[in-house]
């Protein structure tokens, strides 16, 4: 809108008077001499000309005014009189120029870009803010510029001004009469000369007065209302202009390449402090108002201009030891508690690092202010010299800020300061090249920490923060290239600030640096900055300077100008002792449900292939590791490499995960099993980046359906088996698992198995909840992050013990702590978020919820505010959820901050109840959301994705499309809406085609049906045998005493086995392994008893054959003593396993058993020797002796007459029992062989682990589960069959029962 000319700020205007003469009679005119009339006419014309010249040549004065504290609607049209007062002069402004038809453009107004024939020399901006109650601020802008060629329309930007006066335009200090109109659709002000002539090539000065409303939308020039430490309301004014919101605050040429110095002056209340990009150079005080003028800035884009007005109670902390002068501004209470010290320290170390890295300190401003704004939508903004931050990215309390939050804070500060060089010092020509500013700052933000804080291990964040999430977003047709040509629409420009620009861009820069070399990359950056200092840059110079062996621009643009990324299929084959590797590339689209028909199927990426080979096919995977490498530039559809004379069994490409692509492998057999073998036998060969690459590739390929989910699960199990303690490995797994859980939460058939798999990985290798929650003062950041992740994932997987622990920890926090007291809490900061959230999600306690809601509103720490917000959003109470949504939208001052509203919706959408409530509210109140936040609000635009990621029904898809149809103007959500549609299509397709595959993979190939059935059969015969021996007197013989002992031992073993098998059938079997070590010990005790019972049988037979004359050996007492020895050995010998190899009694996830694990070889060997080898050899030796004696006696019987033999003095055994003893030995040997056969798979598995030949085949675990129980049951049935007396008595008893 516009008004007639008016005056402000010592700028006055004289207008020629219009003389209206009264009509005269012609006869009177005739009486006047003609000479007089001629003289009067000449005088009149001369007067008009003189006044006109004076109006143009003399500078106009502006009256200083004060705006009344009244709200002027931004949609005001027509005449709006505004009365203003200073106490000296009263002035009434003129009328506002209106837009006749905002839907029609005229000539150049129809272009979405300004014409490139203007050079902007400077801006002078002055604001007047004289009262903290004021919601409208008046300003004046003076723009010096040069037109490079004649133009008919002079067009620049302005948006949503409360009042906009016609400007005064001077050409070489000569005033030009102009007309002004606005074209709202393109945010244009259009000027024309009233003479309808062209604006000449010349230098101009434009002076324009305006008024802006202080918004609550966190963009433009806006206000923040917050509570200080004394619970009083304070106001802070700040700016946020990137990308195209400077036009909301002052008329300007709002395009990034039109850089110019800024001189800013602010008139503000005496009890406030004004800040701007550069230091203040003049301050004066008059009538309770302070006038602060700031030094002229470096040439910079309009989006980098910044200023703020703070209460003088706002806290500050500065570092006056080094240049530049650096100050951190934050709320008083956090400053007084020294919670800004870390931010100041990081900034003070990052600036000199970048100055050294780029070899120039010129971008460093004379002072640097880091301002924490209580309401700030983004993480931070790199305004040159006045960097603004969301509070949680600048405020740090080591007692309650987690390690992850600390890293986020550090990365954000370093990112914004890197912009001083990339983005501020050298700026992109247009938003097309935004990626180089944002991606470069992202990639470079990790570098200062390697020097200054190496223990933070920040460089690995590029995987979890950038590569992994961006590949997920980029694998869809709705993605966009990093460099988007011809982007002009404001919504499209805003949507560029996404993961593709930031994260994929940073991933590509990492690829370029590691491909070109670190020093070459750095040197190219230095030359690029030097060439384009304080100007706009052409990135092609940087691209071409990177490589000497190829066309740099062609290589880089090949990755920048095409969306998506390739999947490389690597096929290894062996022919005649040679290894042939075939490479094929194609575009990777993550789901078959997405329409890729519009994509270029023939596009080929320039991929730097780097591979390593190993193994000796078909004998081994763990020999010749790294024997050969393959490196070449792959830019065709297919390529073949041959290595002669060697037969490798595997190849690993994309070494160190340098390139931005996926790799799918195909080997002659057991493709991914071979990688698992190497991971387990040589855990250090593959780098951490390679291990991340394995998980990333296999999870995405499995999601698409190119491989089974068995493969990523296999590789994760292998990493767990090697007891990986790298947080980034677990983070990669957790990222993909969390992506799937959004869907699986709504799939009850899959959810228990899904949860159980994650739980078993976490609680492996002896890990417990208590050990996870135990943090030592010496633990490094990696350990803290890992334990925090594990506890959070256990809770998310609904682990009962973890959830109970979270509630216990929450209840241990003193209530006064949540009233901002200094109470000490015994919960480590790395677990606080999980503790708050899951206590609220599980415990429906209204008092706790109200306490946390109040804590969100009063908490001093911004991190604690976020935690409290996540906690109250996790409730299952629909009334409370609706209360949050409504109060946050209608009354943010006492409820949810504007900056947190869509974060809260995301928190809610993570839960089934919360998603339903939030989605219903979102649909019903979409128009209100638009009114409050506006369509260009970035987080509003992205909020639809919070729902889409878990929509699992066609009805949800239809509801979402209906919403888009009802509100077709997407604003900044253009890209997000496309992504949301793609995401729901992906969800529906995944459920249809991939859910069953994942469910089958999670079954872990263990079938307990045979084990349970054999246990029941064996127990039946065991109990029947014992019952008959006890009940039937005729069966109470010494032999049957031993048989009864064996039967009892078999019964004990089968009971243990039956209980474990039943546990294994439970979908949550990893949770329900109670008394695990005791049951594992019981297993080994029963096995030991069983084998030694056979040795006791053998000793008894030895008495009968060799010592038959010693009658006392055939008594019950002696045999009872043997049984006691049997039990003592069986109970005591397995105790040693507790003390060998850190204890071998653990839960073994592959077999779902609590047992003496085969993974701990020493304890397993001890168990084999004591439980199997020793009793087996004792038995074998005795039976061998008996058998030899019996065979000798048999030969004598055949060579002599029976009567003679009876008198032979050489008789050495009880001849009537000779044949019976041979038969008994044979029977007992059969029993022994049966039971030993059951232990063979266990022995094979132990040997497998001893030889370190990789991951055992899953069928071995199936055999272990079933073979021992089957053989034990079979042995019991055979023993029953061999016991003739017992068998006959049992048959008679059963027959009697049936007849009776």
UniProtKB/TrEMBL annotation:
Names of the cofactor(s): Zn(2+)
Site label Transition state stabilizer, positions: 502
Any single GO BP term: proteolysis
GO molecular function per UniProt: G protein-coupled receptor activity; metalloaminopeptidase activity; peptide binding; zinc ion binding
Key word Cell membrane present: no
Cofactor note (record): Binds 1 zinc ion per subunit.
Protein's recorded name: G-protein coupled receptors family 1 profile domain-containing protein
Source organism per UniProt: Adineta ricciae
